[in-house]
Amino acid sequence: MSHTQEVTAFSLWCRPSTLETRPIRHSTETGESMNPSTPKTVLVTGASSGIGEATAQRLAADGHHVFVGARRTDRLETLVAGLRAAGGSADFQELDVTSLESMRAFAAAARERYGRIDVLVNNAGVMPLSRIDALRIDEWDQMIDVNLRGTLHGIAAVLPGMRAQGTGHVINVASTSAHRVDPTAAVYCATKYAVRALSEGLRQENDRVRVTVVSPGFTQSELTDRGGDPVAQGAARAASEQLAIPASAVADAIAYAIAQPENVDVNEVVVRPTAQG
Ligand SMILES: NC(=O)c1ccc[n+]([C@@H]2O[C@H](COP(=O)([O-])OP(=O)(O)OC[C@H]3O[C@@H](n4cnc5c(N)ncnc54)[C@H](OP(=O)(O)O)[C@@H]3O)[C@@H](O)[C@H]2O)c1
């Protein structure tokens, strides 16, 4: 193979910024830590219950500094007190992910407290299920605002800092509903497909910021407790009661992605009950 052919073949696999500015290096060469247990500052949205709460518990137990947000601050207060009592490093701030201002204030508070943000877990989400022809438009808007806009707000709040520090990790919690569409879940699926799409775009545009999509199947949480058409919501609750895996199973996948060396980007993980169709 000629030199020109080699360069052309190489360029197919590299981001433009990598080709322009620096050679590919591995973490052992750059001096970045290979130790998966290096403490990081991790922000978790929607940590007042379910997967977010379990993720905060797992990451604090791993020795990370955990900064959690949600609207129910009484829940966050209890969570943080428990994590600290167990020897963990944790703090919280009220957060509404539908507000860019609230998300920016949340990120700023974490930066103020810990000096930097290493990982954002964009986890907050809602799932009020209904058929499209029921026209529950307020709930469509809520899913778009929390699941999609909220994820984008999180990215907007942390990406400039991560790019400036030359490292970072955005973990977006999508769903198996980002991989298949079911009746009564069309709008929820649309938001989760969108989260996967924007995650892939974010990954392609950044060669120093890791991007992971974690897609849970039925998981024990409060997700089916709020809103939606009662029949559709009841069916989802019944399936969940029969199948659901513990929220800690999803937290374990998130912890795994975080623990990889900086040059290893776990892009997609699907974690679902073995018996889920
Ligand atoms: N459980 C499942 O079977 C399953 C399956 C696939 C994907 N997921 C995804 O997993 C993620 C976590 O959900 P979960 O199952 O753990 O349900 P959950 O127990 O209901 O937790 C949802 C979290 O999102 C927070 N949240 C909702 N609206 C918010 C807002 N505007 N601002 C800030 N936080 C908000 C809630 O906190 P506050 O109400 O206190 O604000 C809560 O902490 C979601 O993205 C969900 O779509 C869950």
TrEMBL record:
What InterPro entries does UniProt report for this protein, alphabetically?
KR_dom, NAD(P)-bd_dom_sf, Sc_DH/Rdtase_CS, SDR_fam
Per the record, the similarity remark reads: Belongs to the short-chain dehydrogenases/reductases (SDR) family.
Which GO MF terms does the UniProt record name? oxidoreductase activity, acting on the CH-OH group of donors, NAD or NADP as acceptor
Q: Which UniProt keywords apply?
A: Oxidoreductase
Q: Which stretches make up the Ketoreductase domain?
A: 40-221
Q: What is this protein called?
A: Oxidoreductase
| Taxonomic path | Bacteria, Bacillati, Actinomycetota, Actinomycetes, Streptosporangiales
**Pfam families under this entry?**
adh_short (PF00106)
Taxonomic superkingdom? Bacteria
Keyword Oxidoreductase carried by entry: yes
